Amino acid sequence: MRLSCSPFRTLLLLIFGALALAGCGGKVKLGKDSNRYVARDVDTLYNAAKDRLDERQYKLAAALFDEVERQHPYSPWARRAELMSAFAHYLAHEYAESITAAQRFVSIHPGNRDASYALYLIAVDYYEQIGDVDRDQKVTAQALDAMGELIRRYPDTRYASDARLKVDLINDHLAGKEMEIGRFYQRKAQWLASVIRFRKVIDSYQTSTHVPEALMRLTESYLEMGVLDEARRSAAVLGSNYPGSDWYKHAYELIQKKDRGAA
Predict the structure, then answer these.
(1) Per-residue pLDDT tens for 106-149?
(2) Which of 27, 138, 159, 195 has the most C-beta neighbours closer than 10 Å?
(3) How many separate domains does the chain show?
(4) Which domain holds residue 39?
(5) Does residue 242 form part of some domain?
C-alpha cells in the first residue's frame, strides 16, 4: 500500500509542463526503432521524446531524451532533456533509473534553477516505493533522508512545502512499524522489548497518530512487568493529552482493575 501521492504527482505534472516546452511545434513521425542511434538535429530528437511522453511511451521517451544529451551535449536542450529523462523513468515506475538520472543532474548542475526539482523527484521516487509497515523500511528511511535534504537546501520552494507534509506521513509510517513490532513482542510476552518499541514511538514520533495507542500499550506492558508507578505515569500522560480517547478509557480501566486487585 503506497502512501497517498496525488498532490505531489500534480505538482510534478505542473512542472513537467514548463520543462517539456520544445523549440518547435508539430508532431515528429519516427519508426518503432526511433531510439537507436541515428544522428538527428536537436529539435527533432527533443520533440520526438516529448511526443512519446505524451503518448505514454515512457521508456521510449526516456531513451530519446537520453539521446538528446548524447548527440547534443552542449545544446541548451541537453540539461532539460536530462531532467525529462528522469521524469519519464518516474512515470514508467522505473524508480532506480529515475533516481540515478536525477542525481546525475544535481551532481553536474548543482547551481541550476531546476536542481530543486531534481531533488524533489528523487524524494518522490523513494516515497512511491514505501510499502506496508510489515515490510523492510529501508526505502522509507531513504525517502525521509531525501525529503530532509530537499528541505535543508531549498527551504522556501513549493517542493519543500510539499516535502514537509510528506515527512509527517513518513514519520507516521515509521511509527506504525514500531507499533507493529511492539505488539508482536506483547503477544510473545516479551514485555521489556515491547516497552522499548512503544517508548520509541512516544519519544521519536511525538506528532504521529500512533502515540495514544503507544501510551496505552506501554501501560499494559508496565503492568505485566509489575512496574506500577510507570504504568500509572503512562496512563496519566495519556489522560492528560488524550482524555476522551478510547485508549485512555482502556488504560484507566486497567489501572483501576489493578488497584482493586491490590486492595
Answers:
(1) 999 888 889 999 999 999 999 999 876 666 778 998 999 999 99
(2) 159
(3) 1
(4) 1-93
(5) no
